[in-house]
């Protein structure tokens, strides 16, 4: 028993010593990136899938749990693959050119995005839309910072909020099919289901009456 413990400790020391070697840093960063992508993807998707599934999806408990597990696995896997691909390509470009330049990041991410997130499915679609909204805000701030557009005299956020809500509700009312399915479900719950009730039970307590009255 003691020999087994000593062997494990020796193995642990060797692993820790390996992790401290600078020459392996790039390769080890790729591996840890894969790990962090998998963990982060699961942390982000699991609660979201849990809430959305039990709020809007029908089916047995087994089917709902299976759907949650599948969505969580897909998000976790894709993010892990992307981080692995991105960091690997970044390290390869830097090694080939002897230094890191901004274009390396763009090219590596483009290739990773094409390979990992290029399949048009609900999970990838949600991730891309999430990123797109952040990109638009980021590019707007960068344009002001670089002087490409003047610094607004007043906070533009109220105008942005008005335009975003005006546009999305117009699309929902007249071109619903253009919106992403989970957004359609959310808006149906908020704006259409609130138009229908039969008595106090489905006016205040439940969204929809389940009996046949």
- Judged by helices, strands and strand pairing, the structural class is mainly alpha
Number of H/I helices: 8
Calculate the terminal CA-CA distance, rounded to whole Å: 70 Å
Note poorly predicted spans: none
How much of the residues is beta strand, in percent?
under 5%
Residue-averaged pLDDT: 89
Number of strands: 0
Any idea what the shape is?
A: flat
Number of separate structural domains: 3
Q: Major sheet, described briefly? A: none
Order of helices and strands: HHHHHHHH
Helix share bin? over 70%
**Over all CA atoms, what is the radius of gyration?**
24 Å
Account of the 3D structure:
Helix 3 packs antiparallel against helix 4. The termini are far apart. The protein has eight helices and no strands. This is PXMP4 protein. InterPro entries: Pmp4 (IPR019531).
Which short descriptors sum up this protein?
single chain; 213 residues; mainly alpha; 3 domains
Explain the layout of strands and helices.
Elements: H1 2-19, H2 25-56, H3 61-97, H4 102-117, H5 122-145, H6 157-174, H7 181-192, H8 201-205
Organism: Gymnorhina tibicen
Pfam family, one: Tim17
Protein name: PXMP4 protein
